[in-house]
Every structure is written in structure tokens, then in C-alpha cells.
Amino acid sequence: MACLPSDCLSNIFSFLQEDKVALRASILVNRQWCEYAIKHLWKEPFRLALALKENIDYGVRDRAKTGMLIEMLIISLINNENKTKNNIPQTSRKLALIPIPIFNYVAFIRRIDLQDLGLAIIEWCEYIFSKEYSRQTDSIKIRNAIFGTLLQRRVTRYTSTKSYKKDNIFIKEITSRICKLLMMQISRLDSISIESASFSPRVKHSEILEAHFEESSQFSDITNDYMEIVSYPGAENCLSQVVELSLKDICPKAIQFIRDLSLIAKNLTRIVFDAKSRIFSGERIFSGESSLVMAALHTLIEAQNALREFELYNFNINGPNLINDLKQQKDTLNRLVFKNVNITKLEYISEIESLINLEELEILGGNLESKEFWPISIIKFPKLKFYQVNNINPSSIKMKTNLIDQTICSTLRSFIYNQRKRYCLQSTTTILEAVSQHCINLRYFECDAEIGSTDQLMSVLTSSPFLETIIIRNKRIPLNINELLEKVKLIRLRYLELEGPWKFSSKSLDIFLRRSKPPLYTFVLINSKCFEDEHLEVLLQRLSGTLYKIDLKGMYKRLSLDLRKRTRLVVDDFYYKTMDVV
């Protein structure tokens, strides 16, 4: 394994790039493996440094790990700058104190989150000015040498400590200098983001990190410095090839950041925009601020050559401008996600149908201030593979009858329609009718189907013989699905989940399994009032050697102890709980 060809090793480590444990273990194999592992670990170093930032257990030890990693980054930045200036061995007294890193870590960076960058810098400062760090004479010398080299002036132990504790300008200078060096030395960034760490409820549990998000903290003072990286020397080369932008902390500086980035980054393929932040949150989005955000988004989208994915969260659509901007990208746009997006008029999103190259369409939550006909039909997207509508209010969604024609949506593979909070029979019936008539190649089907929808369910399941995953929920009254089980034939079904008081006999279940002979791998039943020993006997008999997992939660009827013991012997993963202990 240690002598594998380079291209083979590269593929292996690409597969392991999200497995931090395996990557760290690979460092110890040999130098070649170490280099590949370091290359992937340092693609996003600030997230790695703050891996536990949303953990209640983030403490002093984690701060030390963060501090040591950022210190190594800064040392790498300083050594790279020295080489470009002199191209000779280090000779100055300050540089001689700074160790030479094994790798050029900066060259591996491909993704940066600006919030994590700022947080990592402030955590590094807290680490190097801690009592534990200050007890080490060699560490103090390295710290002062780093400060002196970064700031290009003499820094002593006394002056650095005094400046850090009493003068916020000191940390702002350090941050600005680090950001400038990063822009000069990173050859190409693939992804840039601003995640709102302060909005994670779990961050509040860590007293160490929570302190950074107070108004008087030094972290709030350095925000402007990392927001201005677009204007730093070298930023044009560094950011020109960015393909992914994610903004989840929208402040006035972030709006200017979007405008500036639009002048440089022309090749974005994915934009994620979330307005749930400290200023633009819920009802606090004022009309003037909203118009500024929309104007910045317009500039950003218009500047792109081939946008493929657009995701919008927690926002209000009060006009047609956003969809009109996306229409300009219709030749390349293949994924659109709206989550908790409030739409004042359905006509504002009716133009989504012109995005004919969409392969994924997700509309999750949000309010529709209209009871007009739902203007988006699945049959208008010839390449659509994934369609999901969840918990829209109001739920009176129904397609216009003139849209239901003989077009076959042969590419659709996944259909998800859940209105758990706001179930409407008319909406469910209309949409299921469209799916059964036009979507014959479904592989994944998930739906809330309750009162009066069993006929439409049967139509969908009989018209889609290649279904592999089915999840159906019913949380109201018991519905009989015996006829459905006896008529449906699904020869590829691997996962079946039924939630709610569905009524079916062991005989119907047996008929379905005998006719279909599915490779059913997982069977999940939740809050069932009809499931008894006879049903489980059928599963064990008809799916012997195939069934890996049986998950029975909230059962109203108790299964016999002997049968449960026998099931555990033949099914690898068997879970069972009755309603009285749920």
C-alpha cells in the first residue's frame, strides 16, 4: 500500500477527504502518504482548527489545538514571503527564531470561511497570550518574532501583551496582515464563505467562544478586516477562479463584499444565500435593507458565466427581479432551492418554469401570500430528476388543469411532497395525479398521504414499477391499504417505511411480497396499530436472506418474546418498542 502509484494514491485520498481520522492516521505511514494527507487536511484549515466550535465541550485544550494550527499557518506565510523577497537563507535575527515548516501549507488551501478565519485568529491570540504559553521562554521568543515580522517593527514581550489587552488596533493590524499574506500567497481558491457561527444555538453553550460574539469583543472589531480581502493585493488572482460562494451572515459589510466580489469572480457555479443573520433576520429585514441585498444579488448573478446551483434561505421575494436574474442563467442552472422563502405573489416565481434545464427543484417551508393555482408543473422540466415540496403555507397547491397533458417526465427519479403541518387533501390528490400520469421512472417516493388519497397512492405505485425507496406517512385516521398491497408489484424495492395508523393484514403483506419478490433491505414501521406476530412471520419467511434491518417504533400491539428472539438471530439490525414506552 505504501508504494502505490501517485495517481492511485490521489484517488484514494480524494475518497477519504472528509474522513479526518483516516487522514490523520495516514500522516504516520511515510512522507508520501503524509504529504497527500496534509494536502487534504489543509484544504480548509480554519474549519479543521475549529472542528469542535459548535460543541459544548470546546475548551482550553481545543483552543490550544486551534492556536498551534494557526501559528503553523502564519509561520508558513512568513517563510514564503521571505523567500519571495530575498531568495536567500534567513539571516535576520527575527527570522532565525521562526522555524521552517516541513510543507508549504498555504499552497494547499482551497476553501476559506471568513468567519472561521477571524475566529481562528482571535483564538490563536488568546492561546499565545495565555498563562500556559507565557511560561515557555522559547514560545515567547517565537511569538515576538512573529509579531515583529508581521508588523515590521520591534515587539517585546511587554509591548505585545500590553497592546493586545488594551488596544484593539493591535489585533486588527495582525488580522489585516494575515489576510493580505493569504491573498498574495494562495494561488487559487475554490470556495469562499461567511458562515454565521454566532447563530448556531450550540455555540452559545461554549463560554469560550460565546465571548467572541459580544459587541465589545475584539472579534467584532476585526470583522471589517477580513471582509475587505477582495481589495487586497493578489485578491484578483486568488479569487478569480472561485466556483462556490456561501453567505450566511449578512451584514452591511457583507453586501459590499458581494459587490466587490462580483467584479472578480465570474465563474461561480454555486451560490448559497441565507438572510438569517444578526441584522437581516425575520421581521427585522427592512425594505431599504432588503433592496440593497437584492441589488447586490442582482450584480453577483448577472456577472456569472455559467451558474449551476442557487440556494436561497430565509428571505422575502417581493418582486420578479430575482427570478428574472436567474432566467439569464437558464442554459446552465440545474439546481434551485428555496427554504423558508416568503413569496407575496405566485406570479413572481411562475417564471421558474422557464428554467428548463433544472435537474433539482426544492421548495421547503415559507409562506405563499396567495391562494392562486400553483404555477410550477413538474412536466415543464424535461431534465428534472429531483422534486421536493415541504410544508408550504397555505397548502392549497394544485396545478392548472391545462398543464396536465400527455407529456412524460421520464427523467424524474425522486419525488418528495410533505405537508405535515398543513395537510390539504385537494393539494395532495392533484399532485399525486400528475405524478402517476407523467413520472414512470421514479426511484424514490416520499409523501404525506392521508384521508382520501389511497387511490392516488395506488396509481403512483403501479405506474412506477422501478421504485427502490418508499416513505409514506399518515398521522390522522386509520386507512386500509390491503387492496393497494395486493395490486402493486415493485420488484426493485429496497426500503419501505410506513408511519401512522395504516391498516393491512398479514395476508395482503404476503401477497405483495410473493408477487414482487423485492430485494427489501430495510422495513420501518412507526406507530402501527395493526402489526402483529403474523406480519413479522411473513417478513421473515418471504425476505429470508435479504432483510437486514427491521425498525418497529411505537407499536400498539406487543409481539411475542420468542418471535422477537428468533428475529434477532436472523436479522442483523432489529429494533422494537411499543407505544407505552415511547
Description:
The chain is an alpha/beta fold and 582 residues long. It has a domain at 471-582. Helices cover 41% and strands 15% of the residues. It has helices at residues 6-15, 20-26, 31-41, 45-49, 60-86, 93-97, 114-128, 131-134, 137-151, 157-166, 168-185, 207-210, 218-227, 235-239, 252-262, 287-302, 321-327, 425-438, 454-463, 482-487, 506-516, 533-542, 561-570; strands at 111-113, 191-194, 244-247, 270-274, 309-317, 335-343, 360-364, 386-390, 414-418, 444-448, 469-473, 479-480, 495-499, 502-503, 522-526, 549-555, 573-578. A 15-stranded parallel β-sheet has the order 1-2-3-4-5-6-7-8-9-10-11-13-15-16-17. The protein has a two-stranded parallel sheet with strand order 12-14. Helix 5 packs across helix 7 and helix 7 (114-128) packs across helix 13. It is globular. Residues 87-91, 278-284 and 401-406 have low confidence and may be disordered.
The chain-level mean pLDDT equals 80
Distance between the termini: 49 Å
The number of helical elements comes to 23
Silhouette: globular
